[in-house]
Amino acid sequence: MPDLNGKTALVTGAGRGIGRAIALRLGRDGARVVVHYASSGNGAAETVAQIRDSGGDAMAIQAELGVDGDAERLWSAYDEQADGVDIIVNNAGVLGGRIPFAEVTEQTYDEIFAVNTRAPFFVLQHGLSRLRSGGRIVNVSTRFTHGARVPDLAAYAMSKAAIDSLTATLAKELGPRGITVNAVGPGATATDMNAARLASEEGRAEMAALSPLARIAQPEDVADIVAFLASDDARWVTGQWVDASGGSML
C-alpha cells in the first residue's frame, strides 16, 4: 500500500461516488484529506467520519463549482483547514444527462463546461501557489474521450477532452518542479450518475457486458488507480490518460 503519511490531499466532489472512494483510499494510505463538496453536505460529513473512524485525518469544505469566483472560494475555505497541498484530485463533475445532440440547450452545454472544464482549470491555476514541489495532480476524465463515442454524451465528452489536453499541457509546465499530472478515464461505474441503469436487471447486465471482466465497476476500482498515481510509485508517470474502464474499449 502506498505511503502518503505527511501528505495533504484535496479531492473535489468527494461527498459521494468515485470522489468519496478516492478520499477514503487516500485517507487509508495516510494522507490528510480535505473533502470538497458543493451540495452533498451530509455525504461529505459521512466521508470525513469514515476516514476518521479508520484512524485518518479529514475535514470538509464547501464551494459551489461552475459559478464566478468558485476557485477563489474553494481555496479560501481550504486555507482555513490546511497549509499547502501535495495532491489535488479534480473529480467533481456533471453528466448533464443523456441528451440527443440536436436537443442539447445552450444552458445545459454551458453548465457542463462550467463545472467539468472551467472549474478544474481555475482550481489548478489558483492551487499552484499552494502545491508543493513533488506533488501530484490527478484529473478524473472519462472513457468517452478515447474511442467510446456516444452521441447522447457529446457535450460531456467534449468537456472532458479539454481536461485531457490540460493534463498533458500541465505535465510539461510543472515537470521541472517534480509535479506529475495525469488523468484517469472511468467507464460505467456503480454511482448515482448511473442510478437509472442500475435500477433494472437489464441495465446492470448491459453495464457489466461493457468490460471483458464481465462485471460493473465499483468506485473503489477507480480510486485504487488514482491512489497509485498519487503515490511515489507513479513518480515516472506524467502527462498520461489511464484507462480505468475495465478494458471496455478492447
Question: What's a quick, concise take on this entry?
Answer:
The chain is of the alpha/beta class.
Keywords:
single chain; 250 residues; alpha/beta; Rossmann fold; 7-stranded parallel sheet; 8 helices; 7 strands; 41% helix
CATH topology: Rossmann fold
By DSSP, the count of extended strands is 7
Going by helix content, strand content and strand pairing, the class is alpha/beta
Mind telling me the CATH superfamily name? Answer: NAD(P)-binding Rossmann-like Domain
The amount of helix comes to 40-55%
* Ends apart, CA distance between termini: 29 Å
Label the overall shape. globular
Order of helices and strands: EHEHEHEHEHEHHHE
Count of separate structural domains = 1
Nearest-angstrom radius of gyration?
17 Å
How much of the sequence is in beta strands?
15-25%
Q: Main beta sheet, described?
A: 7 strands, parallel
> Which CATH top level class fits?
Alpha Beta
What's the rounded overall pLDDT mean?
95
Low-confidence stretches: none
- Which CATH architecture is right? 3-Layer(aba) Sandwich
Report the total helices.
8
Question: Can you list the strand order of the major beta sheet?
Answer: 3-2-1-4-5-6-7
GO molecular function: oxidoreductase activity
Keywords: Oxidoreductase
Family: Belongs to the short-chain dehydrogenases/reductases (SDR) family.
Protein name: SDR family oxidoreductase
Could you explain how this protein is built, in words?
With 250 residues, this protein is of the alpha/beta class. It has one domain (8-194, 221-244): Rossmann fold (3-Layer(aba) Sandwich). Helices cover 41% and strands 17% of the residues. It has eight helices and seven strands, in the order βαβαβαβαβαβαααβ. It has helices spanning 17-28, 41-53, 70-79, 106-127, 154-174, 195-198, 201-209, 219-230, and strands at 8-11, 32-37, 57-62, 85-90, 131-140, 180-186, 241-244. The protein has a seven-stranded parallel sheet, with helices on both faces. The protein is globular and about 45 Å long. One of its GO terms (molecular function) is oxidoreductase activity. It comes from Flexivirga aerilata. This is SDR family oxidoreductase. InterPro entries: KR_dom (IPR057326), NAD(P)-bd_dom_sf (IPR036291), SDR_fam (IPR002347). Belongs to the short-chain dehydrogenases/reductases (SDR) family.
